[in-house]
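Work Package 3 (structural annotation) set out to generate three-dimensional models for the target panel prioritized at the project kickoff. During this period the team completed the workflow that converts sequence records into discrete structure tokens, so that structures can be stored uniformly alongside our sequence database. As a representative example, we reproduce one entry of 270 residues exactly as it appears in the project archive.
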Amino acid sequence: MAVGVFDSGIGGLTVLDALQKRLPDVAFVYFGDNAHSPYGVRTHDDIFNLTTAAVERLWAEGCDLVILACNTASAAALKRMQETWVPPNKRVLGVFVPLIEALTERQWGDNSPPREVAVKHVALFATPATVASRAFQRELAYRAIGVDVEAQPCAGVVDAIEQGDEILAEALVRSHVESLKRRMPHPEAAVLGCTHYPLMAKAFQDALGPQVKVYSQANLVAESLADYLKRRPEFVGSGIESKFLTTGDATYVSSKSTQFLRRRISFEAA
């Protein structure tokens, strides 16, 4: 039984790592579309087409359920996919909702009307496409009222991470945090709205200061998936083997993934 995990590159490995720890008996097939990364500067139609192609590849691996461990794809393509493209016997889920449920202190699947929450000033760090989609704000509005969200498009950070340039990535993080704080000097919480960004979590926290609670997605998504599979076990597919697939150079992607996760990761060509 296997579940698919998709990202535009290596950032989704942060989610996969948490999923494997939370669900050790489930096989996971990871698909990184490194040849077309980053998605954050692409059009919505382009993101939709690339994401659907990747999901179809994961279905071919026996993954009836696919997690879009990519905020850009979740923001720009998921709603359209669910409404017009995903067949009844498959499921494609995103990474926004578990994060927002944690931010608003709601239980998984709580569909009650929006209400006041403790956190009023939220900084969102995401790719330009995610920020432009306003998907985070839309999902938040379903669950909370009176929350001010200041979004910062973090151009260049994903590129630096994918290229293995941690020094450049840290410098870009500091620059983007400074830019946001000019508009929102005192955020109470910060959302890392890209699955690449947990690899730079310390840089974000250092730049924001210890008084800001930083939310990242990996453990929240893992807990949400465990709950989902408990309720819908039929969506654990027919695949039985864990593997890592990439549209990019498998040797290069394996090396960079190993560097960032600090454990051996071996990709094969998709």
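The mean pLDDT is 93.
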